[in-house]
């Protein structure tokens, strides 16, 4: 007798051209059938577009890597930030409930006010000061209010070889400007997009392997590398490695000027401390995140290769 083959599980990625979305495509393709949606295919500011995409594809898992991520611009573009980071997440949750699908969503260290002296844990009270942080908290709350089976993964200081980020801006400035000033009193932990994607793929594998999906430990988790740095020290690390790899610089690592956030204020307030402790994900899933420099060095080497190819 011929055995009926079970349909290969499917997974949708929204925001597939972002830093995390791009890496998710690479890592998840090995795990299941992936449908990658960019803004044109599923615009999160349009409820009808979200519902139509989900009802047509009927995925087993939705990984929401789309977001309004410009922290300063969000201060003047409040409505759109809340629509994409808040309301749209609620709509995705509703669709996932109807389909009995898992929703994986990314949130941010910027939901905290930064006044804690130690790394933040999942049970700490979120109290964002920026519109971006508030809109991301609205997304977390929409999931918490819903019956959806979800993993909300908070991360921070994301860096990848694809897309725009702090590493690329520092490299560009140090190659084009005469001087470079960087904030030294804002602390966090760089976590790379490939690491976030590979952890997400591990979680997806674990979910698919589980017979009784209801027993999966859904919930809120911090997904961040270990250790901490500040933006100035991080810049020095980037430029030291760039110089060692033969990248021409106008501003040398020792010449980067350390300034206080009050001297170099962006439009949006940013937390003084936004380090996240990731012990829960290790305890529950056995996933241990490495020290931040290990992954950052890999991303740097990929970025330097692109710089050499330019
Ligand atoms: N970057 C960080 O440091 C950081 C830190 C903590 C948490 N996160 C969270 O991680 C997630 C992904 O971040 P990322 O760094 O990968 O961001 P990113 O590189 O800025 O990518 C965001 C993606 O969202 C898409 N997008 C924006 N508006 C959209 C809309 N209306 N409809 C559909 N797609 C839309 C963008 O599309 P286009 O390509 O068309 O612009 C882009 O592909 C976000 O939820 C973010 O809040 C990021």
Automatic annotation (TrEMBL):
Keywords on record: NADP, Oxidoreductase
Cofactor note: Binds 1 Mg(2+) ion per monomer.
Signal peptide feature range: none
Cofactors named for this entry: Mg(2+)
Keyword RNA-binding tagged: no
Catalysed reaction, written as an equation: dTDP-beta-L-rhamnose + NADP(+) = dTDP-4-dehydro-beta-L-rhamnose + NADPH + H(+)
Function: Catalyzes the reduction of dTDP-6-deoxy-L-lyxo-4-hexulose to yield dTDP-L-rhamnose.
Protein name: dTDP-4-dehydrorhamnose reductase
């Amino acid at each position: 007798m011929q055995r009926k083959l079970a349909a290969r599980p499917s997974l949708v990625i929204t925001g597939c051209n972002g830093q995390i979305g791009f890496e998710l495509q690479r890592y998840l393709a090995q795990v299941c059938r992936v449908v990658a949606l960019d803004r044109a295919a599923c615009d999160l500011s349009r409820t009808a577009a979200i519902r139509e995409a989900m009802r047509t594809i009927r995925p087993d898992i939705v990984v929401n890597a789309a977001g309004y991520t410009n922290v300063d611009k969000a201060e003047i573009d409040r409505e759109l930030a809340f629509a994409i980071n808040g309301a749209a997440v609620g709509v995705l949750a509703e669709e996932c409930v109807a389909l009995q699908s898992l929703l994986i969503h990314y949130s941010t260290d910027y939901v905290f006010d930064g006044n804690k002296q130690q790394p933040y844990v999942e049970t700490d009270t979120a109290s964002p000061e920026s519109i971006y942080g508030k809109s991301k908290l609205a997304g977390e709350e929409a999931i918490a209010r819903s019956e959806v089976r979800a993993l909300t993964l908070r991360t921070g200081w994301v860096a990848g070889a694809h897309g725009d980020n702090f590493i690329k801006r520092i490299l560009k400035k140090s190659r084009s400007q005469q001087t470079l000033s960087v904030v030294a009193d804002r602390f966090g932990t760089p976590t790379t997009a490939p690491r976030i994607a590979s952890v997400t793929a591990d979680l997806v594998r674990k979910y698919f392997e589980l017979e009784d999906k209801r027993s999966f430990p859904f919930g809120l988790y911090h997904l961040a590398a270990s250790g901490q740095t500040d933006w100035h020290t991080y810049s020095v690390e980037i430029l030291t490695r760039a110089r060692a790899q033969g990248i021409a610089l106008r501003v040398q690592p020792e010449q980067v000027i350390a300034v206080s956030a009050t001297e170099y204020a962006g439009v949006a307030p940013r937390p003084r401390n936004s380090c996240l402790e990731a012990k829960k994900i290790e305890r529950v899933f056995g996933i241990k995140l490495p020290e931040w420099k290990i992954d950052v060095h890999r991303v740097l080497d990929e970025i330097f290769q692109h710089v050499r190819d330019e």
